[in-house]
Design goal:
- The complex is a heterodimer of chains A (about 190) and B (about 425).
- With about 190 residues, chain A is an all-alpha fold.
- Helices cover about 75% and strands about 0% of the residues of chain A.
- Chain A has helices at about 5-15, 20-45, 50-65, 75-95, 110-115, 120-130, 130-140, 150-155, 160-175, 180-185.
- Helix content of chain B is about 45%, strand content about 30%.
- Chain B has helices at about 5-10, 15-30, 30-50, 60-65, 80-135, 145, 155-160, 165-185, 185-195, 200-215, 220-230, 240-245; strands spanning about 265-275, 295-300, 305-325, 330-350, 355-365, 370-380, 385-400, 405-420.
- Chain B is elongated and about 95 Å long.
- Classes of the chains: A mainly alpha (about 190), B alpha+beta (about 425).
Chain lengths: ~190, ~425
């Protein structure tokens, strides 16, 4: 039933003065995009508690902004991710824990054995260790499936820059994964 | 743009045709680029394997909707009554119509069989009546005798006995019967008879009277004697045959309801709806065709007590806790349709001819656990063959998840048709 409405119609219903209709529109949006936003928050923050908070704030903020007619065009998912991104950056600004790429080479034998046990953890760790400016476009591209132009809009960079950052993110992941490439191939 | 960037564009699906040609040419000649491609494929594969979507926990969703003061109910606009309950009413009515039709056809079949039995019995009795005119049924192809006008004339028949081979059969018959007679009479008389068949009609007459001594009285009719004699060509033991014919019943199977002992059975088809306690906060998972419909077969042990079996499809709203593989605790909610099968006992409280109330207990199972029910009902029987039933009930389902037991409770209201056999 939710697929019967496009984003424009949902927004119109959302700004309606009829609360039932407005609530209905919000439920459609929530059902449609909550998984994407929640995944994004978790992948960016790597902290479920913080991700929960940001996730909730994102939707509340979205609802309030739409009610104040601050959004009239553009994709709903783009707008939601933009809100989520800003909130994630605020959280990360408070707790700066991203690791410089130079640290990648510093892997102990224990870590190596630990990673070998779980291939998923290798990839997750590699992504986690990315700088936010690379990590964010990479996640939006690979996990959220957004186009470069949408990534550019969200990250407030040019489309070409978005493309380059995704490429650079992949290179950095490859550099990190190089010691484990054989493991991953098996 | 270097080759690595081209590879990236290739994986993004955004490579231009001329760039693709250039890349493929480089791959053909550049071993390190091929290795880079293999590495890239492995990384893409690994990244995709990490592509785990994450669902927001139920409590996060609840908190969000609560903080935003947004309703979680799925109905937006108040639909008209018929629109809201159309599916439910139609599915229930459809079930009742189909079930009633099946039962009607089934009962019609039984009735037809009963008619067949009646018809067959009627035929049998007709035959018997017809035969009564001759005292016994007649099966005969003895044209010789039938062409013999004397066959129906005992006196003439007796005269004919000594005349020819055909009539020797009569003699044989007489001998056979005579043997039986011998058991009760004496050899001398039989020998005398045999000796005097041709010459002494009086002896034959005596012999015939001996036969009559052991046959049923009706056989004394001289017509029978003649006809019985005509059967000799079909069966030498025709006296036995006749005896069998006298008592034989046609082997027609009997299928009538009473003959099958089904006259104390009642079949109920009912439909309705149920409401979870506490109220379900998630929508029902599906709408199967026979949702919230039940079929119940009861056996009336006496006027006030009956027991039976019940099969139905129904929803149970479940709310339970669980921990996922990452040790994260969740509250799970589901509103799932299950098929349940159970045994019931029904006790009538008020019991009048056309009206009765009853209380019913139920113990059953569905695929996740046992179910108990308590039902109060009203039955109105305008005719002996059928009635209408209205019930309210409370149900509890017990189920198990991750070492914990949970209960799912609900109340329900049902209506239906009851057919009495």
């Amino acid at each position: 039933m939710n697929n019967e409405y496009n984003d424009r119609e949902i927004i119109e219903m959302l700004i309606s003065t009829d609360k039932d209709k407005s609530d209905f529109a919000f439920r459609i949006i929530y059902n449609k995009y909550s998984v994407q936003i929640y995944s994004y928050c978790n992948k960016i923050l790597k902290d479920r508690m913080k991700a929960d908070d940001v996730f909730q704030e994102t939707f509340i903020n979205f609802y309030q902004n739409v009610k104040q007619e601050k959004i009239n065009n553009g994709s709903v998912i783009g707008y939601l991710i933009k809100i989520a991104r800003n909130k994630c950056l605020n959280v990360k600004r408070d707790v700066k824990h991203n690791v410089n790429t130079e640290d990648y080479e510093w892997i102990t034998a224990d870590e190596f054995n630990y990673y070998k046990q779980d291939k998923d953890k290798i990839v997750k760790t590699a992504i986690e260790k990315l700088e936010i400016k690379y990590k964010e476009p990479f996640i939006l591209r690979v996990y959220e499936g957004l186009e470069y132009i949408e990534i550019a809009e969200i990250c407030e960079i040019s489309e070409e820059n978005a493309r380059k950052r995704v490429f650079r993110a992949k290179q950095k992941i490859r550099e990190f994964l190089n010691p484990f490439i054989d493991e991953l191939s098996n | 743009m270097d080759q690595s960037e081209l590879l990236n564009k290739f994986f993004d699906g955004q490579i231009e045709p001329n760039e693709e040609e250039s890349l493929f040419n480089s791959l053909a000649t550049n071993a390190s680029l091929r290795k880079e491609l293999k590495n890239l494929i492995d990384i893409e594969k690994a990244v995709k394997s990490d592509f785990g979507v994450m669902f927001p926990p139920v409590e996060t969703t609840s908190a969000l909707f609560s903080n935003s003061n947004i309703s979680t109910q799925s109905i937006v606009t108040k639909a008209p009554f018929m629109a809201s309950f159309k599916t439910l009413i139609l599915s229930n009515l459809l079930t009742l119509i189909i079930a009633s039709s099946l039962v009607y056809l089934g009962m019609n079949y039984f009735n037809n069989n009963s008619n067949l039995i009646k018809s067959a019995n009627h035929t049998q009795s007709s035959i018997q009546n017809q035969n009564n005119a001759y005292n016994y049924p007649v099966i005969s192809n003895l044209n010789v005798n039938s062409s013999n006008d004397n066959s129906l004339n005992p006196n003439k028949s007796q005269n004919n006995i000594s005349n020819n081979n055909i009539n020797n059969n009569h003699i044989k018959k007489s001998n056979i019967v005579g043997k039986r007679i011998v058991d009760k009479s004496n050899d001398k008389q039989e020998n005398s008879n045999n000796d005097q068949f041709a010459s002494n009609p009086i002896n034959l007459e005596n012999h015939s009277s001996d036969v009559n001594q052991i046959e049923p009285p009706s056989v004394t009719n001289s017509k029978f004697n003649a006809q019985a004699n005509t059967n000799l060509l079909l069966n030498k033991n025709n006296d036995i045959y006749l005896s069998k014919m006298q008592s034989i019943d046609f082997p027609i199977p009997s299928y009538s309801i009473k003959q099958l002992g089904l006259n104390n059975l009642s079949l109920t088809f009912s439909g309705g709806d149920s409401w979870s306690l506490p109220k379900a906060t998630v929508p029902r998972s599906s709408q199967p065709l026979f949702n919230n419909n039940a079929i119940t077969l009861t056996y009336n042990l006496n006027k006030n007590f009956s027991f039976g079996i019940d099969f139905r499809q129904e929803y149970f709203y479940q709310k339970y806790n669980g921990i996922d593989k990452d040790k994260q605790e969740y509250i799970y909610e589901q509103n799932t349709n299950y098929s349940a099968f159970g045994l019931l006992a029904r006790e009538n409280i008020l019991n009048y001819d056309y009206f009765k109330t009853f209380v019913q207990t139920y113990l059953g199972l569905n695929k996740i656990g046992p179910i108990g029910r308590l039902m109060f009902g009203l039955e109105i029987n305008p005719r002996e063959e059928y009635g209408f039933i209205f019930t309210v009930e409370g149900s509890s389902l017990r189920y198990f998840h991750q070492n914990n037991y949970y209960w799912s409770n609900k109340i329900g209201a049902y209506y239906g048709i009851i057919l009495h056999f």
